[in-house]
Amino acid sequence: MEITLVEESLYRFRIEQRDLMRVPGVVFASKELLPQAAGDKALEQVANVATLPGIVRASFAMPDVHWGYGFPIGGVAATDTAHGGVVSPGGVGFDISCGVRLLAAGIDRDVLGHQRMRHLMDILDAAVPRGMGRGGLWKLSGTGEMDNLLVGGARYAVEHGHGVPRDLDRCEDFGVLEGAAPGQVSSRAVERGLHQVGSLGSGNHFL
């Protein structure tokens, strides 16, 4: 698919509606970032998302847009259920655990040196589970504990030694979504999730 971008302003580009697109695509990026997004076909995915039933206004792409599983990473879309829209877990990613944290250490970089830095990165690599099917740090006892986790959220995790109370201060709604209904989660999803809790999942993670 050939993608034509129309520059609307300095950092905003429009993908014109064509073929089965129900709304245009809108890309927020600098001109320097666009070749990479176009090169890995992420912009085609932006256009594909624009074909979804019930999509509202536009298929958006943030500056970090790159190729994903169906939806582009960095893609944003809203759908209206009154017009056939659906909540799409595939759009969010069923393996996701993205977050950004900076840990500051009182070590001079020059003192640490390249070799020690590589060794430190190897230790982090071994200690933090990531990738599909690798499994997580938290081995749940079964579906009952998964239900408790789904209801209790991050608070349940902290209560069981996976985090500290101040972590909750950095989470939306303190890590708990009121009204969570584990019964609405399919047995297949629970089965897959049992072994992935406490992992980063797949994707490009920055450690």
Automatic annotation (TrEMBL):
Its cofactor is Mn(2+). It catalyses: a 3'-end 3'-phospho-ribonucleotide-RNA + a 5'-end dephospho-ribonucleoside-RNA + GTP = a ribonucleotidyl-ribonucleotide-RNA + GMP + diphosphate. Mn(2+) binds at D95, H205. Keywords: GTP-binding, Ligase, Manganese, Metal-binding, Nucleotide-binding, RNA repair. It comes from the Bacteria. InterPro entries: RtcB, RtcB-like_sf. This is 3'-phosphate/5'-hydroxy nucleic acid ligase. It comes from Kitasatospora camelliae.
